[in-house]
Amino acid sequence: MSFRRSAVALCAAVATGLSISPAQAAVVAEPIEYSAPGAALSLNPIGAYDSGVFDESAAEIVAYHAGSQRVLTINALSGNIDLLDISDPTNPNKVGEVSAGAGNGINSVAIRADGLAVANVEPSDKTAEGSMLFFDATTGEVLGTILLGNDGEHDAALPDMVGISADGRYAFSANEGEPAEDYSFDPEGSVSIVALPKKVQAPSQSDVRVADFRAFNTPGALPEGVRIFGQVGDSTTVAQNLEPEYITEIDGKLYTTLQENNAVAVVDLESATVEKILPLGYQDHSVIPLDASDRDGGINIRTWPVKGIHQPDAIGAYTAANGRNHLVMANEGDARDWDGYSEEARLKNVELCEGYQGLTAGEIEHLQSDEGAGRLNVTTTEGLNEDGSCHTQLYSYGSRSFSVIDTEGRLIFNSGDDFEQILAKAVPEYFNSNHSESNLEGRSDDKGPEPEGLTLGEIDGRTYAFVGLERIGGIMVYDITDPAHSKFVTYVNNRDFAISMEDSADVDADLPKAGDLGPEGLTFIPAADSPNRKNLLVVGNEVSGTTTIFQIDGHELRPEGSSFSSSLG
């Protein structure tokens, strides 16, 4: 074994029978609820497990195993997977943990129906080869590990999202391959596919295959509209620049978001090859409004001559009522902003070409003012004129929305400005608040509510998208059964804005009262697999360190004074 491989070898351990944490997770007394008239569903927090740790990513990605009635929660702070017993979903308890060993971090976890669990493991050097850890979800027993590069020719660095195919035959990993902080090296992005044994046991190293992006290094092979920028040195390839983030599977195809590149890659599961890359386009904020400033005197959702780069994080796949497969994406946005390179700037600090977008000098001055859109974060890499001296078009990060596309990349639905319009009505005092601090418009100048996490669920023959808003918090629920006519259903936020953790003088006392901060991972539990035979939603909240269980009740919810009709149908 080479030094490079031995340096990232895992020392896995498990501890079971742990005592219950004394921290008492709070379901706040009055969760924020805002629904469409006649909403078919309500989302009600019924229980939570509290790690007792603030703003240290102590609860991130979550997964559920029906056979053991356990939720597995990624605890990035400890580098462990917390095993939570939710046989009583109103009182989840920690019963064990699985570790990838000192110096290693765990980024994601997935579970097969028989209890075979797989986790993606990142070594202390994020540019080194990543690994997959296998364990039994029912006992916590570690079964073994494999390296994700397999052949010595692929970096397989920074394994982010992990999943298991619907038929249980494969595990797959989106290997992001981020550059080093000092920009001295940039690994290739890739997708690893691992053939799984039929029994609850670890696969062998020979079961790993890697789908790489090297075919797109050929000039002209990359579709127009895929962002390739900020490369490390003159010799950096397209394959190094592409960064898989989140991954889903349907009908033998993998679809992985290339977040920074604003695209989705399509990978054939059986052959382990990248078939194509789908560019995702932009949100035109001269048509779709946004609140672009945290210093404009309050809520000011209006149009600006700026385009939003969708840059989705989480992705899900489903078969719609028309029998066709569709992809659903949470359009978070993400800048490359490292010690050695940054593409991010305030709009007021970039040079606009004379007569930008047909504006007068006075209109440009207002656009670049703090009261206008001057504080909005934009990229310095796109929209430049031929000599690169000024911008003919501005691009901001994320589109503050979620999208439904078909498997050819055609846009079927986008929620537009729905999220901000809903939040302006639901929580006007804390519109676009940050997660660690309760404030008004703290995130308007960046990515607004910042939709990041997403899961899909089928209830009574209808498909729903549950979208987590990372900053202000809460879950947006949409009925996407007919994707072209997706409709807002309800928004629920288990948060008490009266508790501002950033300003807290007693974090230990205030954290349990604050509720959920920073939703990251979501998983849907259908009633047939649920401990209480009700449809449930489990959410991992990275800032509050809470894992919260919501019960989905199927009845009409008509809150007094609520009225909302999606601007997009």
TrEMBL record:
Q: Which residues form the Choice-of-anchor I domain?
A: 57-552
| Biased composition, class Basic and acidic residues, residue ranges | 438-450
Q: Which UniProt keywords apply?
A: Signal
Query: Which SUPFAM superfamilies does the entry link to?
Result: C-terminal (heme d1) domain of cytochrome cd1-nitrite reductase
The signal peptide here is: 1-25
Superkingdom of origin = Bacteria
State the InterPro entries in the record: Choice_anch_I (IPR055188), Haem_d1_sf (IPR011048), Mesenchyme-surface_protein (IPR052956), WD40/YVTN_repeat-like_dom_sf (IPR015943)
Question: Pfam families recorded for this chain?
Answer: choice_anch_I
Chain segments carrying region Disordered? 434-456
The record's listing under NCBIfam families reads: choice_anch_I
Its name, as the record gives it, is Alkaline phosphatase
Give the source species.
Corynebacterium hylobatis
